[in-house]
Amino acid sequence: MFMNYLLRSKDIIGQINDLSYGVTDFRKRLYWKSFVKVSCQLPSLVEQQKIASILTTQDKLISLQEQKVESLKKLKKAYLEKMFPKKGSRYPELRFKGFTDAWKQRKLSEILEIATRKNGNQYTKQDVLSVSDEFGCVNQIRFQGRSFAGEDISNYKVVETGDIIYTRSPLQAKPFGIIKIVAEETGIISPLYIVNVTTEGNDSKFIYYCFDTPQKTNNYLSPLVRKGVKNTMNISNDEWLSGEIMVSPYYEEQKRIAEFLTSVDGLITLHQRKLEAEKKKKKALMQLLLTGKVRCVND
Q: Which tens digit of pLDDT belongs to each residue from 101-137?
């Protein structure tokens, strides 16, 4: 087990990369005569076993945390299926007490309006947001390392908490584009995005959860989007709003569903952060233990 960890250490991987041949990282080859040139200092067998035990324990902690995250994601998926009507039905399987009426099929144009807020000189490039399927609306510089905005950002769209964004950027799981909601972080966004606000009597987070799975997003967008050359998404603002979704007729029910699912999302985020912390801890342990900066036993 110790050798398994050692061969994945930063120092050994660096040596292997230096000794490999090829034009790109994906086509590099390492021959045996080169591999045997890799050098390292080995501690005693007792210390090797101790190091392996520590890192194996950390791997188990990471695995347990991964299982917690996956369990929560499955739980959320189950709630999404039960708290929204299935195809062909107007009644969810699971409802909060006091709500009994059938849900209604409504055009998205009755629920969302296109936001027209332009930046002018209110925000700078430091405030440009990007849309990520995994992380939602995030600051471009902090998330991607730099701003990709042009010199003139006066035409960029101002986004506020609760706005719903549709981006035509295709992903493998969402080939017709991404639908996200703006959380606490606000700023400006490229004019290429469609920014929407909810109409009176509708909860923005609830409307977002109407699209919060690849299946829900794709089911709505696939009849509306025309794919052009180079996989471009052709859909106008009016076409984007022309589809229909099933919604609760009660604002209070919409709000309670959104609050409940937001709490589940909060738990997922919490455990994802714990998972990242455990991975960072393992990385630090490997750096300390496999380089001899920290010793487990005295030789």
A: 999 999 999 999 999 899 988 888 999 999 988 888 9
- What are the residue ranges of CATH 3.90.220.20 in the chain? 106-243
Query: In whole angstroms, what is the distance from residue 154 CA to residue 123 CA?
Result: 8
CB 198 within 8 A of CB 164: yes
- Measured distance CA(253)–CA(85) in Å, rounded: 14
Q: b or e along 187-206 (b: 16 or more beta carbons within 10 Å of the residue's beta carbon)? A: bbbbeebbbbbbeeebbbbb
CATH architecture of the domain 106-243 equals: Alpha-Beta Complex (3.90)
DSSP secondary structure letter of residue 277: H
Q: Give percent above pLDDT 90 in the chain.
A: 62
The predicted model gives 140-145 an average pLDDT of 87
Give the residue carrying structure tokens 């009660």. 250
C-beta of residue 40 within 8 angstroms of C-beta of residue 12? yes
